[in-house]
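Suppose a classmate hands you a notebook page containing two proteins, each written out with its sequence and a corresponding row of structure tokens. How would you begin to make sense of it? This section walks through that situation. The first entry is reproduced here exactly as it would appear on such a page.
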Amino acid sequence: MELNISAVLLLGVVLVVMIRGKSLKPGPAVVAVLFGFFLADTDTAPSINQFMTSVADMISGIE
């Protein structure tokens, strides 16, 4: 659960920085957020979550 909260926080900060830096306009940012929101409600959400968990495990295993 910590990874999900951290990933959401990190992506939110990146999104805000991109909007403030004028490299991403608010319209496409809203579309990206809504896409992620609706993607989380599909049947692919568990597969994406499993993939992200395995990537996080792989990264934490690097020493």
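The notebook's second entry, a different protein, reads as follows.
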Amino acid sequence: MNAPTTDQLPVVVIGAGPVGLAAAAHLVERGLEPLVLEAGPSAGTAVRDWAHVRLFSPWSEVTNAAAEKLLAPTGWVHPDDAIYPTGGDWAEQYLQPLADVLGDKVRYGATVTGVARSGRDRVVDADRDEQPFTVHLRTADGGEERLAARAVIDASGTWAVPSPMGADGLPALGEQAAADRISYRIPDLKDPAVRARYAGKRTAVIGSGASAFTALAYLADLAKDEPGTHAVWILRRGIGANTFGGGEADQLPARGALGQRAKAAVEAGHASAVTGFRTRAVERDGEQLVLVAEDGRRLGPVDEVIVLTGLRPDLSFLSEVRLGLDERLQAPTALAPLIDPNVHSCGTVYPHGVTELSHPEQGVYLVGMKSYGRAPTFLAMTGYEQVRSLTAALAGDQAAAERVELVLPETGVCSGGGLIEETDAAPSGDGGGCCAAPASLQIGTGTPATTGGC
């Protein structure tokens, strides 16, 4: 029996999050065979990690047209466009039904450990582009497999790799040793065990984006019921006029309201702000932790630390393919200037596709939050446009691939359900992360959200 030609092989999609499943839907629409590999046990595994967080985008902005076409024959009913879903709502009411429709085109418990050209490491040139990809994976039972693919779309997001608290991008001294007192996620205070962890405690919250706002608001609510609960808000920069976002001027009320809740937490004394604090070390003080800044300042002891300083891509399993990545953002070289957070916010990144996402290695693409590398400006609607464009290219429809079919809202739609993190490169006017102008949060991966935060 003859082996299948490269064109007969499936397109492997890594990650069953919003953008990965959208990619699969577009592939089906184009008559191409997708195979989605999801490390977790269900669709939107990363999204479910922040199921308690409400998105800033309504349902009208968090579903994909190609996906809706697949869902329609099943009797799926689109949720009310005006409702703002939680991460849990999004996963249960949209992502899982979509994955169910795709059926055996989605595999769970499949962790990708490597991608390469068949019989070629990254050094070998001979006949490279003629070889299919080999995708190495680890199964849920610990077994190993190799799959052949005509192309690879990596939509695995950045959720799994939160940035450390060290101001130099590396873990602070003592950070790993104090891991039992440090979290890198927005706490779900409706969970009794999590609530007990922070109730009546002094907690440092590091970060200045929407994730930090969310954590501050949650802890302030807890403080009303649990005396002694206090947040110490640590910012690497100072506090300016726009630190808390657009407020009432924000065209997305949910985002503006969140910034105002964080501001109210400070004004009510439930949180105190420490500015210009760049963490160098974490020290033990009995049962508490002391944070030490690069300038020598020492923060009074805290019981817990919540680090919300961004997310970054895992590129380790792509070491044998030839990627063209910007040296700062770890985003595709042609895309990086368009998303540089030193210059751009969500609202100033225009839609893009296969041209900007291409690498020296033909047929491999990073999409969604992962395509943005360390930039906190990802637009989930832009992620959907990415996969529409590149799947058109894979189907040989170059005209459609090069055509821009997405018209963004005036200020863009940002990803992350409250997962926009602090970066020192935030554009002027930004509160410390994605969406300097009024914008809403999806996920895309994004990016607490996976998958991701923004």
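A careful reader of the second entry would note: The first helix runs from residue 18 to 29.
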